[in-house]
Every structure is written in structure tokens, then in C-alpha cells.
Amino acid sequence: GQIYPSSQPAQGPAGGVEPNAQSVTIGFAQQQLQAPYFAAMQVQAEQIAKDKGFKLLFQSANKDPAIQYNQMQAMMAQGANVMIVNATSVKGQYQMMTQIASKIPVIYIDTGVPDTGMTSVSSDNLTIGRESGKITAKRFLDAGKSSIKMVILTGPATDEFVGPNRRQGFLDGLKEGGLQYTIASEQSGDYQQDKGQVAAENMLAANPDTDLVLGLNDSMALGAYNVIQKPQYKNVYVAASADGQKEALALIDQGGCDGRYISTGLNSPSLAAEQALGIALDVATGAKKPSDYPPESFTKAVGIGCENIKEYYDPNSVF
Amino acid sequence: MTTTVERGQSARPQVGDVAFTARGIKKHYPGVKALDGVDLEGYAGEVLAVCGANGAGKSTFAKLLAGVETPTDGEIRVAGYDHPVRNAAEAEQAGVLMMFQEPLIIDDFTVGENVWLYKLREGRDIRPWATKVDSNSHQTREVLGKVGLGALRTNQLARDLGPGQRQMLSLSRAEVTNHQIMILDETTASTSEEHFNDILDLVKREREAGTHIMFVSHRLNEVFAMSDRIAVLRNGQLVDVLKTSETTPDEVTTLMIGQALRAVERPAPVQTEGKQPLVAVRDLHGGTAAGVSFDVYPGEVVGLYGLVGSGRSSVGRTVTGQKRAASGTIQIRGEEVQLNSPGQALDKSVVYLTEDRRLEGFVKDFDNGENMSLVVLPKWSKGGVIDTTKEKSRVRELISEFQVKGGPKTYTRSLSGGNQQKVVIAKWLESDPDFVVLDEPTKGIDVGARANIYEIIHSVAARDKGVLVISSEAEELLSLCHRILVMRNGKVVAEFDPSEADTDDLIRTALTHQD
Amino acid sequence: MTATATAPAPSAQPEAQRSSPVVDWLKSQYALYILVALLLVATITRGSIFWGGTNLTNLLLQMSIIGVVVLGELIVVLTGGIDISVGSALGLAAVIAAGLFGGPSVFLGLVVAVIIGGIVGAVNGWLVAFRGLEPFIVTLGMLALARGLVYAYGNGIPINPEAAASYATFGQTTIIGIPVLAIIWLVMVALIAFLLYRTVWGRRVYAIGSNIDAARSSGIPVRTTLWSVYILAGLLVGLGGWMFLGRFASGTSTAGNLLELEAIAAVVIGGARLSGGFGKVFGAVVGTIIFAVIANLLSLLNVSTFLQDAFRGALILVAVTLATVQFSRKRRATAGK
Amino acid sequence: MTATATAPAPSAQPEAQRSSPVVDWLKSQYALYILVALLLVATITRGSIFWGGTNLTNLLLQMSIIGVVVLGELIVVLTGGIDISVGSALGLAAVIAAGLFGGPSVFLGLVVAVIIGGIVGAVNGWLVAFRGLEPFIVTLGMLALARGLVYAYGNGIPINPEAAASYATFGQTTIIGIPVLAIIWLVMVALIAFLLYRTVWGRRVYAIGSNIDAARSSGIPVRTTLWSVYILAGLLVGLGGWMFLGRFASGTSTAGNLLELEAIAAVVIGGARLSGGFGKVFGAVVGTIIFAVIANLLSLLNVSTFLQDAFRGALILVAVTLATVQFSRKRRATAGK
Ligand SMILES: Nc1ncnc2c1ncn2[C@@H]1O[C@H](COP(=O)(O)OP(=O)(O)OP(=O)(O)O)[C@@H](O)[C@H]1O
Ligand SMILES: Nc1ncnc2c1ncn2[C@@H]1O[C@H](COP(=O)(O)OP(=O)(O)OP(=O)(O)O)[C@@H](O)[C@H]1O
Ligand SMILES: [Mg+2]
Ligand SMILES: [Mg+2]
């Protein structure tokens, strides 16, 4: 026999259309909690569930597709109607997600698996990176530098999609902004602040004439920011290509246009969660059909720098 | 022999043929010349006893013959085998069976499986269903019966056996393997007279089958009862090889230790009338001890005799807090005490010298100094910080006092068996206990040092302390103690005054099957 | 003989040393109690879902891959060793089986995965058995090396075999309701139990783990046996890698990540002694089920992600503590240690 | 007493010692050779940068936190135990020290972190020493529990103490060019060395690890000593958590993640035996430095992320294998085992 006889995506909520939001169960398979961005998404989702009254099953997979698969299966066993998935692997989960999506409508958030599921709500990492890159380019040009040497803090080796896009976007943004750059070194900071700090230390020691440390997220850039407090690095600046973490925004706010944390990109966990949960609820209650949605939709993409920081910085937000 | 002759019917050597030849054997360990040029032959169908003081090199020679170690220089040839023996596998092919001083038993295997261990040897193919069947068979029980372990269940874990039983268990392999040379390295050291008879029988059978038997023991009476020739080692050299029928124990002793042995004097009787006993034990149960009562008075050396399994060690362990008593009372100087752990007993100055050196005797990664100071360390320290100068100097003194062949920095595990025992005795006596239980204290100790240990025991008692000596050697107890208790089936069944009893009395009492 | 009053007759003494085999067996099965307790909790809290067909199938699938790895870990632990490279080796086997020649067939994948696993095991085993190195440090090196090769092989990007669809179909096939992957696991359980309990090789493994000196001096070929143990463990891990492909149809670079901890934990909670010589296949299987049920249950109970780890940890601690309460009390009473 | 002249004169005996101490010491220091080889490679490939003041300071900082944890792991391993909860416990100590009362002062943080570490250690130790549980499984439970509490405490979001700035300042303070954090580490090294080598407690730790039965029957309070070992290890880990705050000024939820593997590896590569009773502080320190230098070097050489793990693994394997080649050859020649 076969456990998943069909490979066609489900055309309606699992277990049938629910009469109202109170009887809906939504599964949310988060890829990890190791970075604040993802943790904030959970906090947001739980808030929305409370407000709207549906039942939220939330699981986090520690970056491992195998664990995520098990968790999704467990959610289905518990009667989830719709599933929101932040995929752990863009390429590696194709068959897995085909199987899952044949039984339940799947909405991707942040990271999706192409050609599976019904829709994907993600931040456009390329654009976000580019916007942040443009702001950084402007700062250097304003300061009279037309060419910089930079080092990059990347994600782990398993980062197949998001990181490379953020990196490419940022570099494109620098180029668009008219700044020449050379990359002296790239090391992984695992998207974590402490690992990012250590990697930045090592790269700066090897390349003391660096102008810019780019972190592919704010956590790592914050680690690098700690390093450049040392007097010998007083001419080194930090930028991130994404996230908009509160601590980073605070630094941008504090430093103003002379600050050494130049820019980041907005990748709002709450925006994304709101949008995805809205779709999920509509599908589960039959307000809309899975086929009503486009395969992809993006959340707002902006770069945040000293000039527009006031719009985005909220000291009381979770993230 | 019961079984399974595996290595074909290849012509068994005739009695009198050369079984092995050792030429110019040297074995040097870092800093020690364990053997320094030994030439020796063994013949088929004879029992060759090897005698020598502790550390003379007996075990080393045996290990070389068995191929467990490789000589630094020289060559050993075994009859019927072309190559010099270079390792354990070759020796096994050559038909050498060794019983180690510390028997090698697989603790997690059952008694039955340990008997048939040789079936796991190299070269035997993987035969499904071949392993479990034997270990519980009638044949297994028969084999165990021959080595005096008939009462054991074959599916009992070897872990639970006492040292004496372990020795006999490893000896059972002699019954199931085929060999031309059998080495018994102090196999009798912790066995009682009863088991000695089993060993005698075994040796007799083997010898008639043409096996060469090498017998290492510190008990000269056994050596004389069993052997045809006696090889005497001293400091790694072969001093002489004597015909047993043409020599005397005194002559052997003189050759071994360089001078004749003084007779040990029986201790002067102590006055116990009207005194308060140092230790009073009433109706003690625990382990195999089932209702034991006795007193030990200050200044007394009391002996505890019995067969293996009669409950002596259980008594010793229970009165010293090594094991908890199931019931019964223990009073020290009239005051009832609860000894729930060795630590508590130590606080009350009550200590137990184990018969199980391998398991509980010393710490294998410690050197002599560290082992000797293990118990008394708190006394040699201030606020928990060790006074190293004091430790060093006192350890040196102990080493010479107990005639340990080895320095303070030598690992105890690399010492010869007898020297290890001396380290363990020193460790306990240094704590200056009020009451000390010595379980087989002279196990593996040579005749020279033995006299020394006896004197130390007497000097302990002379300071108004109490000593309880557990031994499987009736003779030893008779010459050492003021009083001897005999145990049987977990109870004290008789008390003897050594001046009015002899070995036979003790053995008979221990063996009798009715009260 | 006429036994004397109070004292037990000598022939009765051996009985006093070890209690009856059934009691003994039950005593040593505290893993089983933990499992029963977990199943009880599952039944009470989420009975209908937990015992539902879907969930049971999921559970079986979830434990079959780690189950095979646990068997490999078990035999290594029995020798007194440890293998912390199993997770990475599984990943390597999966990735190369998926990628070599494009991964055109499921069967070829099996061969490749098993060979890769065997090679990793052979290297580990050679260093441990013939070079005398500490298994922990050897397999730690292998842990990093194999994981590194996984990353390097696909630059961190998952490798989808050409036969992905066949793998996916194969992985969810069931026979009389039981997933094939689970059947493979159970067959391996039987195989390893047979090897350990019924062959000379198995006895040798236990002997080496219990007392390597005694084993050596009894003429047991210690080195080759040790080597064979690591190789067999490697083969099992390779098989696990292939099963991974069957289940996920993709060689992801995180395949098998952190599996080693769970595998060792399952072996240990199943009653095996880390210093070797003691441990049963049955215990290891129970250990495997325990961890799978815990993970499944935490999912079913929808425990907050932030608290899941805490729950899992607390559960492990409480379980092992409770399960030993009676025994350790008894032990103390008799032994007075 | 007067020796009775029957035996050979004792004064001739001390010759029979183990071989010359220097040779012996050098033989057992293969970790040192590995380190020297690594430093050579570093000098050849990136000499000027590697030996530059900035990098040396970085290196010292990078090893001081793990260095303190390694000391805790060492004493546990010496007793024959293992503690795989050190990483999580460090994270817990860091997060709670950062968050409790808002983390208003560096000194209060120290007190809180050390207390948290001590509590974790006390629980581990109690279960191991008094309940007789297997250290691996106990600390595995604690690994999950403590990490779970970290997530739960801050919902996975980093906790920045109010005194973040003071932590940051403190963390980069140097005294005559040496970072304070490194000085704390070195003081701890000296303290642990003193405790292990010069006190009754230290001697007992070794005795318990080498032969627990002999230790017990020699009247050593085995349980309380074991307990104290785990507590001390916990205190050190707590201290490490506080140092983490000093260095990163933020209690991230990943603080200390996977530290346990590195700590055990450093202890083992430093020559300690996992079954207990054998191991030196010096070796553990060398082990710590080795792993820090490897990581630093791979960074300085700008080795691709995809290849770093593979390089690290291969380096470990080659190093331990080479370092033992000569000795095992010698051993075989003499022992012929
Ligand atoms: N592995 C070893 N390393 C170092 N020295 C050793 C080793 N084995 C034995 N020796 C030394 O070799 C010498 C001879 O030891 P051996 O065990 O042969 O003595 P023995 O005659 O059997 O003594 P005993 O009667 O006490 O058993 C001793 O000094 C001992 O310390
Ligand atoms: N109080 C006790 N409680 C539980 N077990 C005990 C106690 N005392 C001793 N034992 C154990 O009981 C077992 C008794 O073994 P065995 O019958 O071989 O020795 P024994 O008869 O006491 O000694 P011996 O052979 O010296 O006469 C030993 O393993 C010992 O450790
Ligand atoms: Mg000897
Ligand atoms: Mg006894």
C-alpha cells in the first residue's frame, strides 16, 4: 500500500471546511528558533491565534528537514486544517512537501519549496539586501570613499537559499549605489551573535584594513559591532543585509548618520506571520479556495538606515 | 581428561621428553630486570615447582612461556612446535595453558560460559547455535565439580564469585582444553585445603597424560607435596634446580632468600580474664554469615578458619562496615556502633584488609606512595591540603618497613603479586586501627616477608589493639594466633587454643558435616 | 547431609546470590517501565490520536531510521567503545547515494550507501583496533570530517537523486499496513540479535567489552573482532542513510544531524553499560521507541516549542530517576555501599 | 620497628621505578606535539597575522570561556563520568544572569551565573552519586532541560542585561596586555590544578575514577566526593556563562550550543581517559588551545565554510594517528600483543 497515494495538492482544507474561526486548527511548522527573527514570528503568531480564536499548533524543527517532516505529520494527526510551513530546505524537501501537500493545503512563510503547496508568503531577500546595500553605498560615498574592502559573515553551510540571496542583493545594492568593493574574506557566523563575533574577530585580525563587515543578518552584525569597538578598528563599519532586529535598529538610531552600524533591511516577522495566518484562516473557513492564490507573494521590502530609522524603530517591539 | 581433543592426536610427548627449553631468557622492564639470563628445561609428565621471593621473576617467566609477554632477549622453544613462541596465539597453538596469578575471568559471562571461553578462540569459525548449548550442560557441571565448584549454578554471573572461586573457575579450563604445558601461578594462594585436593587430583591426571606442569607457590608444603623438581629464582636469576626428593624446605628457603628462616615464635598468651572485650559481636547476619558471635580482646590476635564459602569474609566485611549487617549487634569497647560504610568504620578505627586485591585492594592508576597514603591522607594534611614532604618521607619508611620491592613512584599494578599485597597491608596498618580484620593477609607473600608480616601483626596487637586474621592455611593460624575460631555454614562452630590443637583438628572441624 | 538448624545449607547458597531469572530480568528492564509509563501518559492525554493508524504509522517511520543506527551504536558500545560519527556518516551515505552517477536507481543507492557507511566504519575501526586510539576522539574527527564532506559534496545544497520519485514511493510503501522501512528495521533487529546471541562473534564482542585482557589471553582475536564491529556498525549506518533517502527522497546536508546523541541515549537508556560488556538488543529497541514516543508525544500535546526541550529533558530525568528508585533503595539496604 | 634482615636490603629497591620521569612525561604528551605541529603550520601559512598581537588577544579570548568549561569537564571525566550538559548549563547561566532583576550589575551577574551553574551541577551530581544513574543519560536530560529553559526564559530572543555596556567594557579590559577573561581562565587552571594535585579531595577524585571499589572500601566518601565534583564542575560552567556575558554582552539563546562536544574533545585529546582515573590539567589546557588554534587557523586561512568541517575532522584524525605512531610501534615491538 501507499501512505500518500496522490501527488496532487489538496484542493480544500484537511478535514473539510470549518464553519468559523473558533473551530479551525492551523499547524505552523517553523524551521528553527535559533535566531530571534524566527522566535519573534512565533510570538506574533500566538498573539494572532489568541485574537482570532483559532487553535495554533506550533512546532520548530531545529533546521532539520527530517524533524520537520515528523512534526508536520504529528500536526496532521492532530487534525490541522491548514499548514503554514517555514521550510528548512528549499531543494531538499520537494518530495516530502509534495506528500504533505497532497493531504493538506500548505502555505509557505519566509522559505518555501517551489512547485509544492498552494502559496508562499516570503520576504524578497534579494530586494531587501539590495535596499540595505544602497544605503550603505551612499554612506561610504558621502564620506568620500568610492571603493571599500569588506568581509562577510555568512550563514551555515546548509544555508542554500536565503543567505546567498541576501548576500547577492546587498552586493548588487552596493554596485547600484556606485561603490566599488572587494571581498577579503567570508566566514560563517551561523546566524548567531556569538559565533558572528568570533568569526568577525578572526577575519578582522587577518584583514585589519577592512572597511565594512557585512552580516547576512542582524545577530551576526551585532556580534561584529562588538568587535569594532576596539580602538584598532575605529574605521571599520558594520552593516546587515536583513532582519531589522530591535537591537540593531537601536544602534542605527543612536549613532545617527555618523553611526557605525550603517544599515539593515526590513524583514518583518510580524508582517509575514499576519499575512500567512490570514490566508490560512480564509482557506480553512472556506472564504477562499487554495487556487485563488498566486504561487508567490512578497512582504514589503525596505532598507533601513539613519535617515528612515524613526519610522521603523519601536523600542517596545519583541523583535 | 573429559573432552574434546581439538588439536588432533598429534603424538603426545612421552613422559620424560623435553617439553620446553628456555635459553638465556632476559626480560627487562623500564628500570627493572625482572629476568636476567635464565636457562631452564621442563619435561613432559613432571611437576616443576618454581620458587622465589616476591618479585624474583616467577610470574614473568610463566608469562614468557605462555607467550603473553615477549622476552627482551633469549628464546623459548616448546616441543612439537617449530617457532619460538612469540605471542599468546602461538603459545596456544603450541599447547601452553596458563593460569594467571590474577585469574582472567569475564565478569559479565556466566560460570558456564567462562568454562568454555576457549571456544571463542581465533580460527574457530562462526558457528551459529554453537555457543549457548555447552555452558549449561551436564558436562559443564561435571567439569565444575572436578574443580570443587559443583555447588555453583552454571548460569550464575562470574562477577559474583569470590577470589578463591575465580581461581578454581579459571582452572576448570584445564579440563576442557588440550595442552602439553600447564602453568599454575599461585593458583593455590587463596584456596583452602579442600580445593588444594582438587588441584592435586587435576595435576595428577594431567601428569599421567604427559603434561608438563609448572607450579608456582609460596606454600612450601604444597610444593613438596606435589613437585618432582624445584627451580629456585632469585632477583631474576636461576639459582638452582633441585630434585624434590633430595632436598628440604629449609634448603629451598635458604636458596630463595639468601639465608635460613627463623622459626616464628608463637605469641605470648594475653590476659583476657575480667577485661572488657575490644570488639563484641552478637548474632551477626550478613552475606553468608548466619548468626555469628565472638569477642576480641585488646592485645589479641584471633584466627578465623573455615573452608571457602564458610562465611569468614562475610563476617570480616560486615563487622568492618564494608557491607551492611542484616541483623546483629557490634560493640566496640562496650559501646554499640552502627557501621554502615567503610568510612564510618574508619572513623571508629575499624578496618578491613580485603582478600580481593584485584577489585578492592589498590587503585590501579596510583603509584605505591599514593596507594599507601590513600587511607591516612587526611592525617597527613592540613585543611585538606596534603603535606607532601611528610607523605614522601613516611612512604619511604613504609616501603622499607614492609620490604616492598619498588619505589614510591612505581605503579603498584606493575609490582609482583606479593609486593602488591605488602602495599595494601601497609596502607591499612598505617592508619593505626584499633581493630583490624585481615582477610588472607599473606596471600602470595614469600616465606621471608611472611615472617616479617607476622611480626608486624604481633606488634599491632601488642599495642592493645585487636586483630582478626582470616586464613585458609591452618598452619599459619596455629603459629600466629592466640585463639582460633572455626566457621562452617556461616556459623562459628568451634574455638581452639593453638597450643592444644593441630592442623588436622582445624580441617576436620571445618569439614565435618554435622554438629 | 543433615543441615544444621538455622544456617542455609551450602547447596542453597548459590540461590542466595542471584534472584530468580524472571525477577532479575524484570529488574533490569527499567527502560520498559519508562516506556509503559510514557504510553500511559500518551493514552490518557491524547489516546485517540496517539493510537490512531496514521500516528502509529508515523511513529514506526520515525523510529525506523534511528532504530537501525541505534543497533550499530549498540554493538560499538558493547565493546566499550563509542561512535559519535553515526549521524554524519549517515548524512554522507545519504548524500553520496543520492548524488553518485546522479542517483539513477534505488537499488544502486543502497549499494553505494552501504559501501560508504562500511568505509567510514572501517576507518574508525582501524584507528581504534589497530592504532589503539580512543574511540571518542576518532569518531569525533570522523564526525567533523564526514559532515564536512557532506557540505563539500553538494556545497550545502540538498542533492536530489534522479530516482527521487521512486525513493519517495518506496519510502511510503506499506506491507499489510506496516511501512517497508519499519520492516527493514525489524529485520536488522533480528539479524543483530542473532549475531550477538547466537554466534561466536557475538560472544567475542561481549567478552572484549567486559574484560579485554581476559579476552586477549583466551586467544580471542581482539583486534579483528573490534574492527569488524565498527565495520558492521558502519554498514548499518550506511543502510540508515539509504533509508533516509527512502523517507525524504533528498540528500539534505543536515541528514543525520545530532543523531549520535539520540542513538547513544537510546542505547544507554536501554540498559547498556557505556564501559562495555553489557547490553541487550531488546533494551536498545525499547530505548529507540522511548525517544520516538517522547518526540511524538510532545508534538501531539502541542507543547510550546520554547518548552519542548525543557519537557523532554525533564521527562528523561524524571523517568530514569523514578525507574531506579526501588532498586537503588533495595540495593542500598542489602549492600550498604 | 626493627626490620628482620631476612629479605634483600630495601635500600636497593627504589631503582625499580617506572622509567625516567622526563621520558615518561614526553611520551604521554602527544597533545603537545599536535599543538606544536599546528603552530608550525600556522607560522608557515599565516605567520605574521597569527602571531600578531590582535590575533593572539583574540585567541586568548576565544579559548578562555571554553577553557573554564573544559576544566569542569576534566574533573567529571576523571571520576569516570561525563557531562554533556555543560553547553546548555552555560547558556542557562548566561541568560538568567543577563535577565534576572534586569541584569543591573556585572557583579550580581557573576553571583547569579555561578549559583545557576552550581544548581545544575548539584542536580546532575545528586542523580549520579546518590541515585547511581549513568552520567551520560542524566546529563543528556539536563542538556535538553537547560536548553529548553533558556528558550523558555527569553522566548528565544536574546536577553540584553541592563549592564550590557559594563559587561562589554569588562570583557575587553586587559591587564598588561592580557584580557581579564583569559586571566580568570588561568586562575581557574591554577586553582583546579592545586585542588587535584595538592589536596585530599583531588587524590580522592583520581582514586574514585580509577577504582571505585577500592576507593569505597578504603573509606573514601565516594558519594559526597562525586557530588562535589559535579557541583564544582557546575560552578565552573556558571562562571563560563558569566564570562560569556562579558564577552558578548548578550544572553543569546544559542549561548554554549554544542560546547559539550568540544569540551570533551579537549579533555580527551589532552590525554585523559574517558573511563576515569587518568588525566592532567596541563593536557586539558593543551587540548583547549589545540581546538582554539584549529578554529582560528581555519578562519585565518579563509577556508570555505563548506570545507571547514572536513578540514577540522581530517586534522584531528591525522594528528592523533601520527602522534601515536611511534609509541604504538614501540609498544608492539616490546609487548607483541
Ligand atoms: N608490567 C610490568 N612493568 C614493570 N615492572 C614489572 C612488570 N611486571 C613485572 N614487573 C617487575 O618484574 C619483577 C618480577 O615480577 P614477577 O611478577 O615476575 O615476580 P614474582 O616472582 O611472580 O613475584 P610474586 O611472588 O610476588 O608474585 C618485579 O620487580 C615487578 O615489579
Ligand atoms: N553483609 C553482607 N551483605 C551482603 N553481602 C555480603 C555481606 N557480607 C558479605 N557479602 C558478600 O557475600 C558473598 C559471600 O561470598 P562467599 O560465600 O564466597 O564468602 P565467604 O563465605 O563470606 O568467605 P570465605 O570464603 O572467606 O569464607 C561475598 O561476595 C560478599 O561480598
Ligand atoms: Mg607472581
Ligand atoms: Mg574469603
TrEMBL record, chain B:
- This protein's source sits in the domain of life called Bacteria
Where would I find the ABC transporter domain in this sequence? 13-260, 270-514
**Transmembrane residues, as ranges?**
none
- Asked if Repeat is a keyword of the record, the answer is yes
A GO MF label:
ATP binding
Its keywords, alphabetically, are:
ATP-binding, Nucleotide-binding, Repeat, Transport
Read off the SMART domains from this record: AAA (SM00382)
Q: What is this protein called?
A: Ribose transport system ATP-binding protein
- The organism named in the record is Microlunatus sagamiharensis
TrEMBL record, chains C, D:
* Keyword annotations from UniProtKB, A to Z: Cell membrane, Membrane, Transmembrane, Transmembrane helix
Any Pfam family matching the protein: BPD_transp_2
Transmembrane regions: 30-53, 59-77, 84-101, 107-129, 136-154, 174-197, 226-245, 281-304, 310-328
Source species, domain of life = Bacteria
Q: How does it sit in the membrane?
A: Multi-pass membrane protein
Q: Where in the cell is it found?
A: Cell membrane
Q: What is its main location?
A: membrane
Recorded GO cellular component terms are: plasma membrane
**GO MF annotation list:** transmembrane transporter activity
Q: What is this protein called?
A: Ribose transport system permease protein
Q: Record the organism.
A: Microlunatus sagamiharensis
